[in-house]
Amino acid sequence: MSNIFFSVIVTSYNSKNFIKRTLYSLINQKFKSFEVLLIDDGSIDSTIKIAKEIKKKKKIKLTIIKLKHSGLPARSRNIGIKKSKGKYICFLDADDFFYSDKLKCLKKILSKKKIDVCYHNVFLYNEKKNLYLKKINNKNPFKDLFLGKNRIIMSTSIVNRSFIKTNKIRFNETKKLVSVEDYDFWLQIGKSNGKFFLVDKILGVYNLNNSSLSRNRNLHFNNTMYLISRYEKYFSKYKFKIFVRKLRIIFSFIKIAIFENNYMFLLYLIKYRNEL
Q1: How far apart (Å, rounded) are the C-alpha atoms in residues 133 and 197?
Q2: Is pLDDT at 275 greater than 90 in this prediction?
Q3: Is the pTM of this model over 0.85?
């Protein structure tokens, strides 16, 4: 029986500018009963070299797995889950990092409460301000997440390993869900009546620009709408609310298109809206 409480799954791709800071944020954790699995999606820079140097110099239980590049974060996370040994799984993108008291704080909470997904507030690196996340209604988390929106940032999340194993939940690796595979993961957990808990503390730093995939606006928008279409069959009696949900998604992307002066994307969104 493993005595590892947390398995921290770090996903990376060409992360040489961030990986040292990210790994040191784990080395400096006050709570020490954890392992780190660095799952690298075929980096062609010095990410792996830097990680190996840190592993050699510092006392850290670090497993490095380099994959052939696929461009699928879901694949990296699934492999990390399969290789993990901890009771709880923490997800961390290679350009985000934890505050030193994060694992200690969450260990205390998880030891007292029955929680399947735990998440917390963050400091936004680029905007230099705090981001306060919203609670998820545990009376019907599936409905709340679907008709509301994704309220969990991947690098703030901790998942009960036995819960996802028992319910056979994994990240969907289809390309149609790239950039929204995390939202799909939470919806799967909500559908299985998982219990969500928001820790109302700033316990880490999130880089808003940490995903080039999410900055591919057309792909991100189309995959978001595809995700909605996959689950709307479970909410047939909420047709109007689903329509409003889709409109909100479109208008949120319209705001982005206007802010970025991305007029081709803006025209695409307007045409899409008119076809709803």
Answers
A1: 11
A2: no
A3: yes
